[in-house]
Amino acid sequence: MRVEEKEKSVESLEFENIKSFLKNIAENSPFYRKKFREIGFEVNDFKSMDDFSKLPFTTKEDLRDAYPLGMLACPEEKIVRIHSSSGTTGKPVIIPYTQKDIDDWKIMMKRCYEIAGVKPTDRVQITPGYGLWTAGIGFQLGAELLGAMTIPTGPGNTDRQIEMMLNLKSTVLTSTSSYALLLGEEIERRGLREDISLRIGIIGSERWGDRMRKRIEELLNIESFDIYGLTEIYGPGIGLDCKYHNGIHVFDDFMYFEVIDPDTLEVLPDGARGELVITTFKKEGAPLLRFRTRDITSINHELCECGLKYPRIERLTGRSDDMFKIKGVNCFPAQIEIVLREFDELFSEYQIILDRFEGKDRAILKVECSEPDNTNLSKKISRRIKDRVGATFDVELLTFGALPRSEKKTKRVFDLRDEV
């Protein structure tokens, strides 16, 4: 098949998937039926994929406003499970799942394990939380479908985690990056690095940089894989980076992916960084049209060295809603992380404190360092941030381990200005 014919067949399949999806939500989702009526859209108006960018977005605020089951797009008796997203304030986001939704999710999770090189003979220790959060149960379902032994320890209780890891000879760790780091440092402190059997880490739930990745891999003697997902879509497992670690493969046979400019809302071409938007065209319980994830990335449809057909998104560089402003300058934690990677003396852990001093806004960067008394280094880092970001940060160098470790997601920015 020629390249032109292949591209045409892919677009034809995308079109048919999206057309069927639009017909479904127009008929079965009161939320989208109302949204389409407000913009005067009829499914027959959708003539080609060029029309897709004219369709409305869905936001997390829409999902909160639809609490509890306003996003339902199938008979309630088909719903077999409810999940809720973590870290929200006010009304939670409730996502209903049919059995087909769960089966599809299991397939994607199993695919992630296989991409990472996990075998049915492996023993998978699952440390993320269970309950309304999707992470723990998602990792478990995929591992069980693969045929691997699951060890569902859940979050916390580090002593018990290490005991189980040693006694059951866990070979795969699923975790947040923060908890993987905590486990690794505790294992090193106890002199147990040579006693563990881990070889693979499947790690996600929060943005983590290359410095932190390298540290985790050294401490646990593993190869780590970055998993992507969010409850609003399915949960963890909608994408994973392969052994070449040059982007996260995302499963476009279940979802349609776009990257948009978060300000203009225009769709961006491959390679351009913007906000990831996902359409779940196979979902039954709560299908979503053009859901704005707020995650900043880029997309690449070129074939990867590994041979997987799935497109890749760049590892997340931030969120469109995690910006903070200091003295009129818009800043993102990801910008600070890029600067910190330039200094070999620094470790991966840092905090940004925003407060007021003598009536003026102040930004303090606390970062762990192998040379905590090096005042020249702190000034050099501050100058580099000023040059790159445009804002002045007071840099405090701390000894290794001075900042708290987390069993969940690590909070990086603390805005205390309203408390002063």
UniProtKB/TrEMBL annotation:
Ranges for domain AMP-dependent synthetase/ligase come to 73-279
Give the E.C. number(s).
Answer: 6.2.1.30
InterPro entries associated with the record: Adenylate-forming_Reductase (IPR051414), AMP-bd_C_sf (IPR045851), AMP-dep_Lig_C (IPR028154), AMP-dep_synth/lig_dom (IPR000873), ANL_N_sf (IPR042099), PA_CoA_ligase (IPR011880)
For this UniProt entry, the molecular function terms from Gene Ontology, in alphabetical order, are: nucleotide binding; phenylacetate-CoA ligase activity
Residue span, AMP-dependent ligase C-terminal domain: 328-417
Which Pfam families does its entry note?
A: AMP-binding (PF00501), AMP-binding_C_2 (PF14535)
Q: Which CDD domains match?
A: PaaK
Record keyword Phosphoprotein present = yes
Task: Specify the superkingdom.
Answer: Bacteria
Q: Which residues form a coiled coil?
A: none
Which pathway is it part of? Aromatic compound metabolism; phenylacetate degradation
First-tier enzyme category under EC: ligase
Gene3D superfamilies cross-referenced by the UniProt entry: 3.30.300.30, N-terminal domain of ligase-like
Q: What's its catalytic activity?
A: 2-phenylacetate + ATP + CoA = phenylacetyl-CoA + AMP + diphosphate
Quaternary context:
Monomer.
Main function: Catalyzes the activation of phenylacetic acid (PA) to phenylacetyl-CoA (PA-CoA).
Family to which the UniProt record says this protein belongs:
Belongs to the phenylacetyl-CoA ligase family.
- The protein's name is Phenylacetate-coenzyme A ligase
